[in-house]
């Protein structure tokens, strides 16, 4: 089109050029973010506000002999110094975790991990607060630390949780899923069995914004307002009410702009509680914002699964069974955030995307002297560990059978006609066409050509003029099935709160709308996507729909955003609410047009009289009519509002096929990701640009975890990943230009057919990268992250353990 | 937020004033140049100077120029200027190759040559570069100016020949004809410090190596150099065998310690690989066979 030609009018676009429903549009929230006008917790500054800081343990395991706070209290700018002893008098020294354990707010008896909260200072400014920390004297009696999870259950291991009555060891639980007897029988008779040990090491979600809060307890009104970095504001409000005994109607939790969550901001941290205590004690608002090292060392980590996997198959490559033994390192307190009935999260979806009848998993969780957490970093409640296991095991099987890993996968993938499919461990996959996605990924990659190139390079490397520095080329595959959108109330709750989420849609008289959500965006683009969902159903322009979230006084109850649940749960609520509006609009239109509702037909955004399109009412006109003096039929209330609580009938099951190509320098062990092809199927894409952004981020996560991210501990329990100099996040220099593809298989049970996508790429990509590295160096098994040293040692056949200090 | 312990702040407008301020405030005063090493240490409260003397106003120390038969780099020259310098590119490719992998553009825009050398971090890259090139540091005190061979400049981790009331003015590097140089570094990620890095220059006379310098960082090489390997190569033919033997000497004579960047055996192996590559590339460049 040249500039002089008149643009072709597009009726499916709004005046602002946005799609009236699904399609690409710029994110509404970006107008403030690109101008630096986001409003984060640390931007909250209240009149008379005080600042605070936490003194943390330098030991991983030590008895507290004494704490002397007198010098800190004498600091002229210090307003309060709080220790575990102070909290004991308020019955607040300990608080419940999200998984039935307790965790100390400030340590009273012992410290149990390096970085644990020991004392709290409130001062006039943050400099004084930090200065005063140095004036607190703590006398510790160091104890031996449990660092290696594999020794946590040794008979002579120190007991970490002697605060729990009757504790004689460090075991948290044993849990299993699947039919062990049937599975063992298949294994006993199988032609081929491959067994491998692998670690999914401890990593950290490391959101750009660290955790923090500003608490303001108004002594006169008795109202507590807390601005805080939370992915789940309503759940936090209820927990504050339960823990601190505050009346819930007097608690307002505000989660303003959040600079990334990834599961790091689901739980309640001692710092949040301390800022509340600080405000109660001083009568002033109190801000607490942790620094980067505090975030990395003390807040919710992810993974830390030691897995022993076994896969059984026929010689022809038909997979028969998979079993796995997991040793789960939960740190010093069991603080995972997951549905109550699933202590190992959704790990038992580990059978993956393949068709075989027998599976069994056993998970043993242990305490160690490390920070708590476990479910975070876009893991979909540990589906990332599950996908890693099955995708590594299938690749090892291909290696054993000398079969191409794509061919082996194709042979065993679930077929489209098997859906809905009930997995051996009881999951009901809603929909999928797996072979189509894998074929599409192979097409984009030029898979056969890549294998040819690899064969040529390998032949050259074996030849007489071989260059010893010639890169080793590797190709890795991963096929993942996710399960997101927790979840059905009868199966899923957190602390007894069912996982249904609410939404309220209000169309104002002028036809502009407000949508109030219980979920909370941390960068996912909810303000845009949810407006598009409503637009899709009722045809209002997305720019006319304001999305409101993150303030418990102004939004309906729900459990928040994590586990890729917002679109599957709240997105469904929004679609249903919009549908109710549309239905009610029809009744009002019929009243206004003086016809019967059955005479009306819908075109996007408007009800009109069948056969006479000129006789009709737009949603905006109907909204005005709904608020006017127009007489409405018996039983029909005025106004145009709807409020919905959506109880999902099932999870949604997005899936995808990923292919990674790497080049490894055989002499230095340096891995370069040459290409990454990602075909995702998350059902229809509401805003393809936002979906692609989510996928890009997740792929970068996968490269990070596979190549550099890890938190190891030395034998004293010192955290070796406590800064961004030590805990490495990938940069654009390590990421190739992503090559994305898509297939679309709608969810049959979601009102608009969509599935979650926030975590797909983080879940699906690590095994693709790892499989590629191991394919390059032709080693069956070694653990990520493949830093140059780890890769070189794997090439030497002397693997390093990623979870321990390198010696 | 990580915040430093309280400190006083002064701004120097001349080298003499900087020295006077250092003298006045005593041993607990520190110069601050780009601040990219000092400020992080202060925020972690690993360094707690009582007075910071800001020398960012000393723009007369920001230069890269030919001075006689040497190239002089002023202490306040930023990494970014070293990276982009056509003069250095003409004589010593090692500079741009090292600078390209020092930190990231933000750090390179502020961090200085002087700050890098005076920080004397055992993994610092420019120390290896200047050590390879056998540069000289020019240091000024109230009493006058002296010059120290770069290989005597570092007195240990985080310790240099610069005294408490002294300032590093510039670093000088001899210009050598028929010379090629190169820098090879392996890091875990762009912007990370070296696991190991080796820089070299080789001067060729016919088929013979007439002079050579090898700088090594992050693996405990004495004076960021390997004198034994240089002695082995000087006067020998520029062959792959000679290079391989020298690279093996580099690996043998350094003292790496294990950390999360890698175990000792890997680091030693890496030194051998990188020394081989840096020397081979330097020779090819000296011969005009490689860019
Ligand atoms: C994220 C990050 C990554 C980095 N990665 C690398 C890397 O890969 N390789 C690498 O080599 N470096 C790296 N660095 C260090 C970087 O190069 C620093 O800029 C440099 O080390 C210090 O320079 P500066 O000017 O900032 O020094 P400053 O921090 O200002 O000073 C450092 C020390 O030198 C002293 N000093 C400064 N100037 C003088 C002078 N003229 N005379 C006497 N004393 C002086 C100061 O008193 C102080 O003790 C990294 C830094 C960061 C923050």
Write structural notes for this entry:
The complex is a heterodimer of chains A (about 800) and B (about 290). Chain A is an alpha+beta fold and about 800 residues long. Chain A folds into 3 domains: about 30-40 and about 500-645, Aldehyde Oxidoreductase, domain 4; about 40-145 and about 210-260 and about 265-300, Alpha-Beta Complex (Aldehyde Oxidoreductase, domain 3), CATH 3.90.1170; about 300-485 and about 650-795, Aldehyde Oxidoreductase, domain 4, CATH 3.30.365.10. Chain A contains 18 helices and 34 strands. In chain A, the strands form 10 sheets. A 7-stranded mixed β-sheet of chain A has the order 3-7-1-14-11-12-13. In chain A, a hairpin with a 2-residue loop joins strand 28 and strand 29 (about 605-610). The N and C termini of chain A lie far apart (about 65 Å). In chain A, about 55% of the residues are buried. Chain B is of the alpha+beta class and about 290 residues long. Chain B folds into 3 domains: about 10-55, Uridine Diphospho-n-acetylenolpyruvylglucosamine Reductase, domain 2; about 60-175, Uridine Diphospho-n-acetylenolpyruvylglucosamine Reductase, domain 3 (2-Layer Sandwich); about 180-285, 2-Layer Sandwich (Enolase-like, domain 1), CATH 3.30.390.50. In chain B, about 35% of the residues lie in helices and about 25% in strands. Chain B has 12 helices and 13 strands. Chain B has helices spanning about 15-25, 40-45, 80-85, 85-90, 95-100, 105-110, 115-120, 125-130, 150-155, 225-235, 240-255, 265-285, and strands spanning about 10, 30, 50-55, 65, 70-75, 135-140, 145-150, 155, 160, 165-175, 180-185, 195-205, 210-215. In chain B, the strands form 4 sheets. In chain B, strands 4-5-10-6-7 form a 5-stranded antiparallel β-sheet. In chain B, strands 1-3-2 form a 3-stranded parallel β-sheet, covered by helices on one side. In chain B, strand 12 (about 195-205) and strand 13 (about 210-215) form a beta hairpin. The radius of gyration of chain B is 19 Å and the shape is globular. The termini of chain B are far apart. Classes of the chains: A alpha+beta (about 800), B alpha+beta (about 290). Chains A and B meet through helix 4 and helix 18 of A and helix 12 of B. Flavin-adenine dinucleotide (FAD) binds near residues 30, 31, 75 and 167 of chain B. Flavin-adenine dinucleotide binds near residues 110, 112, 116, 119 and 167 of chain B.
């Amino acid at each position: 089109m040249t500039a002089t030609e008149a643009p072709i009018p597009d009726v499916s676009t709004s005046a602002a050029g946005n799609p009236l429903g699904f399609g690409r549009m710029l994110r509404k929230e970006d107008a403030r973010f690109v101008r630096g006008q986001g409003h984060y917790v640390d931007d909250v500054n209240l009149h008379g506000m005080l600042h605070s800081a936490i003194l943390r343990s330098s030991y991983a395991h030590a008895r507290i002999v004494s704490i002397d706070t007198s010098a800190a209290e004498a600091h002229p700018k210090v307003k309060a110094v709080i220790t575990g002893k102070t909290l004991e008098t308020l019955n607040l020294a300990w608080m419940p975790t999200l998984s039935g354990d307790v965790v100390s707010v400030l340590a009273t008896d012992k410290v149990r991990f390096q970085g644990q909260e020991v004392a709290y200072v409130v001062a006039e400014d943050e400099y004084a607060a930090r200065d005063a920390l140095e004036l607190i004297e703590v006398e510790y009696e160091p104890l031996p630390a449990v660092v290696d999870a594999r020794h946590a259950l040794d008979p002579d291991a120190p007991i970490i949780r002697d605060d729990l009555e009757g504790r004689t060891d460090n075991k948290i639980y044993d849990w299993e899923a699947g039919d062990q007897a049937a599975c063992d029988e298949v294994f006993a008779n199988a032609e081929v069995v491959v067994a491998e040990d692998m670690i999914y090491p401890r990593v950290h979600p490391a959101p750009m914004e660290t955790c923090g809060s500003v608490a303001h307890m108004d002594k006169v009104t008795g109202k507590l307002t807390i601005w805080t970095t939370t992915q789940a504001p309503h759940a936090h409000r209820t927990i504050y009410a339960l823990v601190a005994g505050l009346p819930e109607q007097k608690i307002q939790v505000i989660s303003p702009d959040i600079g990334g969550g990834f599961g790091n901001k689901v739980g309640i941290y001692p710092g949040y509680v301390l800022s509340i205590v600080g405000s109660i004690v001083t009568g002033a608002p109190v801000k607490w914002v942790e620094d980067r090292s505090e975030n990395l060392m003390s807040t919710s980590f992810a993974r830390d699964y030691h897995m022993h996997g076994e896969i059984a198959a026929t010689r022809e490559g038909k997979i028969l069974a998979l079993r796995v033994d997991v040793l789960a390192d939960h740190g010093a307190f069991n603080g995972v955030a997951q549905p109550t009935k699933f202590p190992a999260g959704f790990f038992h979806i580990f059978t993956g995307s393949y068709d075989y009848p027998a599976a069994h998993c056993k998970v043993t969780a242990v305490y160690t002297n490390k920070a708590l957490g476990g479910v975070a970093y876009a893991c979909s409640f540990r589906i990332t560990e599950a996908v890693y296991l099955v995708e590594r095991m299938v690749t090892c099987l291909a290696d054993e059978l000398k079969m191409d890993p794509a061919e082996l996968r194709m042979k065993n993938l679930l077929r489209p006609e098997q859906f809905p499919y009930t997995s051996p461990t009881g999951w009901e996959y809603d929909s999928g066409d797996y072979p189509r996605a894998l074929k599409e990924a192979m097409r984009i990659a030029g898979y056969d050509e890549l294998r040819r190139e690899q064969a040529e390079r390998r032949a050259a490397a074996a030849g007489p003029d071989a260059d010893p520095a010639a890169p080793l080329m590797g190709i890795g595959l991963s096929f993942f099935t996710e399960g997101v959108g927790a979840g059905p109330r009868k199966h899923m709750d957190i602390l007894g709160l069912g996982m249904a989420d609410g939404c309220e849609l209000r169309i104002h008289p002028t036809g502009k709308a407000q949508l109030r959500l219980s979920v909370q965006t941390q960068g996912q683009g909810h303000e845009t996507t949810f407006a598009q969902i409503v637009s899709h159903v009722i045809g209002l322009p997305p720019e006319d729909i304001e999305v409101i979230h993150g303030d418990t006084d102004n939004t309906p109850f729900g459990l928040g955003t994590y586990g890729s649940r917002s679109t599957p749960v709240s997105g469904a609520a929004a679609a249903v609410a919009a549908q109710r509006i549309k239905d009610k609009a029809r009744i009002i239109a019929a009243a206004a047009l003086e016809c019967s509702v059955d005479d009306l037909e819908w075109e996007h955004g408007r009800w009109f009289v069948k056969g006479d399109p000129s006789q009709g009412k737009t949603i905006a006109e109907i909204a005005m009519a709904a608020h006017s003096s127009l007489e409405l039929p018996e039983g029909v209330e005025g106004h145009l509002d709807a409020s919905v609580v959506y109880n999902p009938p099932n999870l949604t099951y997005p899936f995808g096929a990923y292919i990674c190509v790497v080049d490894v320098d055989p002499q230095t062990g340096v891995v370069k990701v040459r290409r990454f092809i990602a075909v995702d199927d998350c059902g229809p894409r509401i805003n393809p640009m936002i979906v692609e952004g989510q996928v890009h981020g997740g792929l970068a996560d996968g490269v990070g975890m596979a190549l550099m991210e890890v938190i190891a501990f030395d034998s004293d329990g010192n955290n070796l990943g406590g800064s961004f100099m030590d805990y490495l996040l990938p940069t654009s220099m390590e990421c190739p230009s992503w090559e994305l593809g898509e297939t679309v298989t709608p969810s049959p049970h979601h009102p608009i057919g969509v599935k979650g996508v926030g975590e797909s790429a983080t879940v699906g990509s690590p095994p693709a990268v790892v499989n590629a590295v191991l394919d390059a160096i032709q080693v069956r098994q070694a653990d990520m992250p493949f830093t140059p040293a780890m890769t070189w040692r794997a090439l030497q056949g002397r693997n390093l353990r990623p979870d321990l200090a390198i010696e | 937020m990580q915040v430093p312990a309280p400190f006083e702040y002064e701004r120097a407008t001349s080298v003499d004033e900087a020295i006077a301020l250092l003298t006045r405030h005593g041993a607990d005063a520190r110069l601050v140049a780009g601040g990219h090493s000092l400020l992080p240490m202060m925020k972690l409260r690993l360094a707690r100077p009582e007075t910071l003397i800001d020398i960012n106003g000393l723009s007369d120390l920001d230069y890269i120029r030919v001075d006689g038969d040497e190239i002089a780099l002023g202490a306040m020259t930023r990494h970014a200027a070293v990276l982009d310098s056509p003069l250095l590119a003409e004589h010593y490719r090692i500079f741009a190759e090292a600078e390209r992998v020092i930190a990231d553009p933000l750090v390179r825009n502020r961090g200085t040559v002087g700050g890098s050398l005076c920080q004397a971090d055992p993994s610092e890259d420019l120390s290896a570069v200047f050590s390879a090139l056998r540069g000289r540091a020019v240091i000024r005190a109230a009493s006058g100016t002296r010059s120290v061979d770069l290989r005597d400049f570092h007195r240990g981790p985080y310790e240099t020949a610069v005294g408490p009331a002294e300032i590093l003015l510039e670093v000088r590097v001899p210009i050598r004809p028929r010379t090629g140089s190169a820098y090879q570094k392996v890091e875990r990620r762009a912007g990370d410090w070296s696991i190991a890095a080796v820089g070299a220059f080789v001067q060729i006379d016919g088929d013979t190596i007439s002079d050579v310098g090898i700088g090594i960082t992050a693996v405990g090489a004495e004076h960021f150099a390997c004198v034994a390997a240089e002695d082995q190569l000087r006067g020998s033919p520029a062959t792959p065998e000679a290079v391989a033997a020298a690279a093996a000497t580099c690996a043998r004579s350094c003292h790496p310690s294990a950390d999360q960047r890698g175990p000792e055996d890997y680091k030693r192996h890496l030194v051998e690989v990188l020394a081989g590559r840096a020397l081979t590339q330097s020779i090819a460049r000296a011969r005009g066979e490689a860019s």
